Amino acid sequence: MLAERKRKVIYSNPRGTLWANDKQKFGQRMLESMGWQEGQGLGKDQAGITESIRPSFKFDNKGLGYKNKSNDWIEDNNVYEQILSDLSKYHKPNNLVAKQDEIKDLEKKTKSSNRLQ
User: Which residue range or ranges hold the G-patch domain (predicted)?
Assistant: First the structure.
């Protein structure tokens, strides 16, 4: 089966004006029952906002809550390099080479001792 062709959805109220002009919303009825009237601000002194909250339009394709942290990886890299330098002070690479040489010497000794027996 093939997928159906996508159809364009046409909304009857694209700007949401029907919702904004509806006077029977639950929140509005609650506020009116507590003494609020349309056009007044919210709060004790009625100094709050008088209009409904409007969402801001995002012009970019960043996610919700995105913060530009483009140079954070550089800071992390510097911390990593600092840790490596601190470790290299205590663990010298020469010790590792010396231990590998000792292992090779022990291998030679065991081989030579096996030949004698």
Answer: 23-69
Residues 6+ apart with CB under 8 A from 47: 41
pTM here? 0.35
Whole-number CA gyration radius for the chain = 37
What is the C-alpha separation between 67 and 60, in angstroms, rounded?
Answer: 12
For residue range 91-100, what is the model confidence (pLDDT) as tens digits?
666 655 666 6
Q: How far apart are CA 31 and CA 59, in angstroms?
A: 34
Asked if the model's pLDDT at residue 22 lies above 70, the reply is yes
Cα separation of 55 and 40, whole Å?
21
Give kind and range of the element (H or E) at residue 50.
none
Cβ(48)–Cβ(41) below 8 Å = yes
- Residue 50 and residue 41: Cα distance in Å, rounded? 5
Q: What is the DSSP string of 53-102?
A: --PPPP-S-PPTT----TTHHHHHHHHHHHHHHHHHHHS-HHHHHHHHHH
